[in-house]
Design goal:
Layout: E1 2-4, H1 6-12, H2 15-28, E2 34-36, E3 39-44, E4 48-57, E5 62-70, E6 82-90, E7 96-100, H3 105-122, E8 129-133, H4 137-149, E9 154-158, H5 162-175, E10 180-183, H6 187-192, E11 196-199, E12 218-221, H7 234-239, E13 242-245, H8 248-251, H9 255-263, E14 271-273, H10 274-278, E15 291-294, H11 299-318
Helix pairs in contact: 2-3, 2-11, 3-4, 3-11, 4-5
Amino acid sequence: MINITYEQINDLLKIEDLFEPVKQAFIDYNPSSLIGIPVSLLHFPNNADTHIKTAAIKGYDYFSIKVVSMFPDNAMQNLSPFSGAIFLFDAKTGFPTAILNDKGIITDLRTAAAGALITDFVASKSSTSVAIIGTGIQAYHQVFALAKLRRINTLAIYGRSKEKAHSLKEKLTHSFPDLKVDLVDSVEKAVKESEIIITTTSSKTPLVKGKWLQKGQHITAVGSDDVYKNEMDSDCFHVADSIFIDSLELNKKYGEYAHAIKSSPHLIDKTIEFGAAFKNIAFKNARDKITVAKLVGVGIQDLAAATSIIDKIKFDSEHS
């Protein structure tokens, strides 16, 4: 069994390398090929949690189990709050193939790739103004990934911490010197002044309200991935012309969509999974519509990312 270190992963894994495999994994994620994607969530004191996600798809060389934790109090001990690993198994024998000690970086990058892919696919091509709600590492990665797929002219940042908002602005302007970045003092202002809105928080109360949305706007929400978190109110789903989700099965259990569809089952009529959307040109770059994309995170993203790393290592060893 191969033991792949964080340093190796950090050197090998680039966000651009994940766009195609993550997109293909969503397309392959369908009832005829899916073996399973069960999820387990563990909640500990002081807002700590561990997510366990698995993925197995017919025809893939591997299946995976991902364990990723977030323990905020680690910071008081000068430890990273994030940790994690992905275990790959041979799909023909069941034998363990590799442990990827990624400390959560694979989760960060595959989430960013998925968010950017659906945003770029759904949002109007003329949309160049973006708002990012949240100031953590995922906020940076989401903007970075989207900027690799389409031009962004202006970016509005909202965060509860002004210090973290300033830090995010500095990082993004360093990566994209031509990007005009403004710090705004309310979520409402960020939403109303932008064509694309991306939410990356762990909020337990809705931040974005449907009554603020107008035709031509798109929201991608990635922060709410369990039963307690909630970044958008149910009106966002009601006013949307189309709702895009990474997994219907998981979104019925976790995040804002679970609450919305429980009280309004008819929302299913305008809901489509990412994989089906990617295969249907009718959903591409719609104009003059309100669209919402909701991600709770699916193990197939981890499987796609981990497989791409293994393939790189194999290629390098065979050609060295």
